[in-house]
Structures are given as structure tokens and as C-alpha cells.
Input
Amino acid sequence: GKGNYRHFMEKELHEHPAVIGDTLRQYVDPASRAVARPALPFDPATLPRLWLSGCGSAFLVGQTARYWFESLARLPTDCDVASELRYRNPPLTEGGAAMFVSQSGETADNLAAMKLLRAGGQSLVSIVNVPESSMARESDATLMTVAGPEISVASTKAFTAQLSVMACLAINFARARGAIDAAEEARLTAALLEVPEHAARILDVTDEIEAVAADILDARDVLYLARGSLFPIAMEGALKLKEISYIHAEGYAAGEMKHGPIALIDSKVPVIALCPSGPLFEKTASNLQEAAARGGRIIAFTDEDGAVALRRFASRVVVLPKVDPFVAPILHTIPVQMLAYYVAVLKGTDVDQPRNLAKAVTVE
Ligand code: M6R
Output
């Protein structure tokens, strides 16, 4: 049951810290605090190319992982929505592998994409939350997320569990490919192991995010902006808002704003920015300033170091714990999912069963 929570989604949001911790414990060796070598049908050291596939939020996990696999592990990676991958007949690299992300393990398009890549000689790995699912059966190896049953149609804890698996793989692949040394591996693993604690702190302070929810409640459109590995999390925020609050929202790469979406900006279109301090901070902040100069209402999620500069022009700044940029996508997922939840609650929508949606999409 839901216990003391109003909705399954609220309960499942509060499970983020435990689920991330449980998932990390599966992949990180407690003694050495290094990522254990996962059982895979390929050697990450020599893999020429990796495909990632998923639908909806699972696709956005793939997009985030692509940033990690390419920038950290120097592994050429492609990522597609499964419904496109299954029909677009891409040239496949001999000896390549593919990973399929899915909470249910039953999503029809992802299963079909799997069969296509199998026929193309790729080795298949599924990252699923249900061990006896069709996708688990269809793959050469299965990496489990340890999220427990997810009841709410809007995915929450399964998403951060999937990101946690991907982050472990990124570290492991980076080490196997000689892209990082033991000290860097230890540093990244330590950052990852601190995520559950930070996640719990974010869930503790809900009033600021509830205030943001009240701010955007009457908006017709909302823009979510970010750069780098946070860009897919901006899209996740937008997807969640659409899905359960029925407000139109789009996630954009911050640098793309001036190529079109800036035309939408006025005081009625809230701009939600994921903008922690780090190498891309100045670039993102200057995009936000451009939006503010056109009357845009900027709502920024950042950390203590980013807050000072953003307060000069943002109408609201929500300060999150300062973390290594590597783990920022996992942490920023939590407030954007919470935000969608609070907006939906204020709107009085059917949070756990949004209209027209099913938990597992088993038809094409
Ligand atoms: O079970 P799956 O992870 O394969 O489901 C994929 C999507 O249908 C799913 O993530 C959907 O986008 C969610 N409702 C998002 O909250």
C-alpha cells in the first residue's frame, strides 16, 4: 500500500535514497569501494561501439549514459528511442553491443529493437527492474535495477536506479579502457556513494519546491534548460510535468534556446534551469540571463557556489547540495520529479493514473 503517503508517486519519490543505495551496493565492491566487474557478453576494453535504446524516461537514462560513456570512458555510443531504432536500419559495427533500458522489461518497441540488433550480430544487455521479464529473457546478460515494484505510472525511483547502474558501468568501462586511473576511479565512486545521503536531504526540504510548483501552476508552457549530462534531466523534468500535470513543457539544450525557443519567452513562460556550478556553469548562466533580459521568469536549481551569480537575475533559486558534476544528473532528477508531483497535486489530477497512459506499453 501507500502507507502514509497520498499517492504511490509520493511514496516512490521518497524511496530514491534507499533504491539508489541498494542499486549501488549491487555494483560497487564494499571492501575496495571499486566498481565490481559486471558479467557482460563483451569486453568493455575492446568494445568498438555501443547502442543504447529505451522509451520515454528510459530513453533519457540512455541519453545521460551516452554523455558518461563518451566523455568519461571514451566509448563511441549511440542512443535512440526504440520506436525509431527498430525501423531505421542503421549500419552496425561488428563486435558491437547494445543495452536496452526498461523498468517493466515488457515495452514492445524496445523488445522489437532488441530483435533487430540481435539479427545484426550485436550482443545484448538489458537493464530492467523485473528479472523474469521478456527483455531479460531475450538478452545475453541482464543488469538488474534494485528499485522494487514501481506502481505509479510516472517513473521515479526506477529512473534513478537505472542512472545508478549506468554510472557504475561508466566508471568500470572508463577504467577498463584506460581512460581514468585508480585515483580518479576512487574519486568518482566516492561521489556516487554519497548520492543517497544528498538525495535524502533534498527530499527533506519540500517547501521550496512546493513554492516553485505554486509559481508555475497556471503556466501554459514551461521550458526546462540545461547543458551536458543534465540536458536529458531537463527533458525528464519536462516529460514528468506533461505526463501528470498536463502542462506543456519542453526540455532544451540551453545553447539551443537562441535558435528558436527564445521566441516563446515572456513573463508567462517559466524557465526552469538545472545549473549547478562546474565547467558548464558560465555558459548556461549566460543563456539564462538572455532569457531573463526578455522578461523570462527564471527558476534555477543550483548549488551554493552557483547561487550567488544566479540570484542577480533569477526569480527563484533552489540550492541543492554541491556534488561532483559526474553525479549531478542523478541528484537533479529528484527535484524536477518532485516539482511535477506537487504541480499535479495542486491541480488535482489523477497523479498515479494519468489520462491516456499505461504503466507498461506492450503494444506498438
Ligand atoms: O517500462 P519501461 O521503462 O520500458 O517504460 C518506458 C516508458 O513507457 C516510461 O518510462 C514512461 O515514459 C514513463 N511513464 C515516464 O514517467
In short: The first helix runs from residue 8 to 13.
